[in-house]
Sequence to fold (135 residues):
Amino acid sequence: MPARIEASKPTRLTHSGMGICLAIMPRAATTSDPFNAIAEPRRRALLTLLANAERPVAEIADELDMAQPSVSKHLRVLLDVGLVEVRREGRHAYYRTNPERIKAVHDWTRTFEQYWQHQLSRIKARAERTSSPKT
Fold:
């Protein structure tokens, strides 16, 4: 039977060859942090698919070639953090993105847009220099 780790004691990861001991940082719960939720590639794929239209679970599963229970699990996480909303119609549930919560994520990432724009400007300038005719 595997050893049980007590939750009250900090867990340590050691690298014996170098004598380094690092404390493992606790992660925010996936169900409370939108950034943790979208760190999972399948959840990003779900959000991308739902960006254009609301869809039922079965359609999402078919479109993404995932098992329906897996899709439901990922949708639950996205629902818990508020990135998707659900509309019930009888026994059917239709999922769609929640633009307000996604806007909060977008606004944060916009902080770094200046770096992307600067890099793109440099690439454009270099391409223009190399493609201009030499005299």
About this structure: The CA atoms of residues 34 and 42 lie 14 Å apart. The first strand starts at residue 12 and ends at 15. The chain has a mean pLDDT of 81. Residues 113-131 form the longest helix (19 residues).
